[in-house]
Specification:
Layout (H helix, E strand, L loop, with lengths): L2 E7 L7 E6 L3 E6 L5 H19 L3 H4 L10 E5 L4 E4 L12 H4 L2 H12 L1 E3 L6 E2 L4 H9 L6 E13 L3 H9 L4 E4 L2 E4 L11 E12 L5 H14 L3 E6 L4 E5 L36 E5 L1 H4 L19 H16 L12 H9 L5 E3 L12 E3 L3 H11 L12 E5 L15 E2 L5 H5 L3 H9 L5 H23 L16 H15 L5 E5 L7 H16 L3 E5 L3 H6 L2 E6 L8 E6 L1 H6 L3 H7 L17 E7 L7 E6 L14 H18 L10 E3 L23 H5 L2 H9 L5
Parallel strand pairs: 3-20, 3-21, 5-19, 19-20
Antiparallel strand pairs: 1-2, 1-4, 6-7, 6-18, 8-11, 8-12, 9-10, 9-11, 12-13, 14-17, 15-16, 21-22, 23-24, 23-25
Helix pairs in contact: 4-14, 5-7, 13-14, 14-15, 15-16
Length: 714
């Protein structure tokens, strides 16, 4: 069947419409907001396609899937299994990243586990485990006739006399030992200085390289590794020495390493996660800016926020003894106190005892005692808190990059594994085009290249799909919770392109939202690719370029709500442009949005943000005029969200509302005294509770209830 045929669709405001939509084409549904586009695309076509697919499964499988309600429609024929790609956040889970959502990180973990090289944390030398046969092959590559000593390193850079060691080795039938580079007979061992460092290796065998000596060589290697904990040293007489290990361990430093596995590189697995932050990459710490939110206040006026509820007690029993001892005033602004006094107040007096300080917890005065400090006191209370007992302490905590893993989320051992000089965190920190270039140019030995071949195909193809949908500015380490709805949608789109499915109906909700016009063409090419794979695309969209690129356009209207729900135009883009629908009038230029000829400017009222450096912001200084309609624009990934959503808004919110939202990096902000509140209207849905409606969310329902309650009939 070549068409999707819909008869009698009445979902929401749809007016009993009949419609024929061609399959295997790129079809755009456009129209006024509220005209019924989503009711048709998602609540009717997608809902019925998904419902039919789920009903075709076994009863056992259906219990794990949500069965959608049958839409209000008489008949739909020609439907394929439907997949919806909407504008909603991928995940709010702090462990979710672009890499994990797209499964690219899973392939990277596999790549590093199979072809990664371990480097010693201490000396920086590469570490590799080798079997006895592999070591024998290396030795067989030496010139024939080379004379060798096979040594078992027993003592490396340790002090002692080791007389008993020599006796034990002699009793086991060995004849010679190498001590500090010299060969000695065990029946005539050297006398060692106990306070000096020594190197001692057992001479297991002496042989000449030849084809006939391989069997003896392997036996000697096995014996040496048994004696030296999987280590063996090969000394070419008159030449170099080479150290081999049967396990992942540095022969020079003696540092062992766990066997490589994909779990070692997973921050969602105890084997790979940083033990300090459990793989989150961030720690909660008590923040001085939250403890002293207004440094213009003096200590007497309650500058230390956690002490305000017992201000009188702390003022008389703690701050006054401290001020007498350190000679500082309680009435000057906190900002004007010396750095030494601020440090003492926050971290304590250490070993210094303060005369007359109230003894903590016993409510009697000691002759003198140490001052614990605000931060250690809060930490102690937080560690002892149970349940909601000290929820108020959360007000003074903020997230900081983990001090142990520096935000990489992984344990130290995981970061010692590298591929072509980069560990897995360094690779996931690259922008997607840089990561693709690195992997595409990866040069591996033939054996490792064959192991990595199929992994590389998956990695490079998935990265290309993400770049094709306009996400080239992202990095794989980017947290999913920080992505916009449009970015999340394009990630799901790239995942679907990579899946290679055919014969599917894809329903998309404004995929161009958030994209700069420069990046729109790449998105359209990705949609065309999805169509050309044998799929049908139904796209709800307002973007002019997307509408004009469609195979067919369905225009909904003529108005919104009760005035909409009808098909006012359908056909090729040129046919809709020539028509008299509202969309056609604007597309043809017969209707335009007028641009004001004069602009109102009040440059003297501004908020000035200096040194903004969040993500890719380059220490920029920005002035935001107040009382005007401002627009921040730029290509995708240029730093718009970093500047406004992650720096300006949280800085304003924390100052005006005393909150503790995480704020991007910046030096200073001024002009805040000109505002009394800040409201953030983002792309988050207002909620999905079945008890809510527009009246309850807008607050209109409260006066309506009060009106009805005040009537005599009530």
């Amino acid at each position: 069947m070549q068409n999707i045929v819909i008869k009698g669709a009445r979902e929401h405001n749809l007016k009993d419409i009949d419609l024929v939509i061609p399959r295997h084409q790129f079809v755009v549904i456009t129209g006024l907001s509220g005209s019924g586009k989503s009711s048709l695309a998602f609540d009717t076509i997608y809902a019925e396609g998904q419902r039919r697919y789920v009903e075709s499964l076994s009863s056992y499988a259906r219990q794990f899937l949500q069965l959608m309600e049958k839409p209000d429609v008489d008949e739909i024929s020609g439907l394929s299994p439907a997949i919806s790609i909407e504008q909603k956040r991928v995940s709010h889970n702090p462990r979710s990243t672009v890499g994990t959502v797209t499964e690219i990180y899973d392939y990277l973990r596999l790549l590093y586990a199979r072809v990664g090289t371990v480097y010693c944390e201490k000396c920086g030398q590469p570490i590799a485990s080798q079997s006895v046969d592999q070591i024998a092959d290396v030795i067989a590559g030496l010139p024939a006739g080379s004379r060798l000593l096979i040594l078992a390193p027993l003592v490396r850079r340790r002090k002692g006399e080791y007389r008993q060691l020599f006796v034990d080795l002699l009793s086991q039938g060995f004849l010679r030992v190498e001590v500090d580079g010299e060969i000695f007979r065990l029946d005539e061992p050297p006398t060692l200085e106990r306070n000096l460092f020594h190197d001692i290796s057992l001479v297991v065998d002496r042989l000449v390289v030849s084809d006939e000596s391989r069997g003896r060589l392997i036996d000697s290697l096995e014996l040496a590794m048994e004696k030296a904990d999987d280590l063996v040293a090969i000394q070419v007489v008159g030449g170099d020495r080479q150290l081999f290990s049967g396990r992942l361990a540095c022969g020079d430093c003696g540092i062992s390493f766990v066997e490589l596995s994909p779990q070692l590189f997973s921050f969602n697995n105890p084997h790979g996660a940083c033990p300090e932050c459990s793989g989150l990459g961030r720690d909660l710490e008590f923040d001085l800016d939250l403890i002293v939110p207004d440094s213009r206040l003096s200590l007497k006026e309650g500058a230390i926020a956690p002490w305000r509820r017992s201000q009188t007690f702390y003022l008389s029993e703690v701050l006054k003894p401290l001020s007498r001892h350190y000679s500082f005033s309680l009435e000057v602004p906190f900002a004007e106190l010396s750095d030494l006094v601020k440090l003492m107040l926050m971290n304590g007096s250490e070993a210094v005892k303060i005369p007359g300080l109230l003894s903590d917890g016993r409510f009697h005065r000691a002759a003198s005692r140490r001052f614990e400090g605000v931060v250690p006191s809060l930490k102690r209370r937080y560690e002892k808190a149970e349940g909601d007992k000290d929820r108020e302490l959360l007000r003074y905590l903020s997230t900081r990059p983990c001090t142990l893993c520096q935000g990489s989320r992984l344990r130290r051992e995981s970061l010692q594994v590298k591929v072509m000089g980069l560990n897995i965190h360094e690779l996931t920190s690259l922008a997607l085009p840089e990561a693709l270039k690195f992997l595409s140019n990866l040069q591996l030995p033939p054996a490792r290249a064959e192991i990595a071949r199929r992994i590389m195909v998956e990695l490079t193809s998935r990265l290309k799909f993400l770049i094709d949908v306009g996400l080239d500015y992202l990095a794989l380490e980017r947290a999913s919770a920080t992505l916009s709805g449009g970015e999340s949608q394009r990630i799901r789109l790239a995942t679907q392109i990579g899946s290679g499915l055919t014969g599917v109906l894809y329903v998309l909700d404004e995929p161009s939202i958030g994209l700069h016009q420069r990046d729109n063409r790449r998105l359209l090419e990705a949609l065309f690719k999805l169509r050309d794979m044998g799929n049908s695309l139904l796209v709800v969209e307002h973007d002019q370029e997307t509408i004009m690129a469609a195979d067919q356009v369905i225009d909904m209207g003529p108005g919104a709500g009760r005035l909409g729900g009808e098909i006012v135009a359908q056909g090729k883009p040129a046919e809709v442009v020539a028509g008299d629908s509202l969309t056609g009038l604007y597309l043809s230029g017969r209707k335009v949005i007028k641009i004001p000829s004069r602009r109102q400017v009040e440059a003297h009222r501004v908020i000035e943000l200096k040194g903004a450096a969040q993500h890719n912001l380059q220490q920029i200084d920005v002035k935001f005029p107040l009382g005007l309609f401002l627009c921040v624009t730029g290509v995708s990934g240029s730093g718009k969200s970093s500047l406004i959503n992650e720096t300006l808004y949280p800085a304003l919110h924390n100052h005006l509302h005393g909150d503790r939202l995480p704020v991007g990096v910046f030096n200073s902000i001024s002009g805040l005294d000109q505002l009394d509140k800040v409201i953030n209207i983002d792309q988050s849905p207002i909620g999905r509770t079945p008890r809510s409606n527009p009246a309850t969310y807008t607050g209109v329902y409260t006066p309506i209830r009060e009106l009805f309650a005040g009537l005599p009939e009530a």
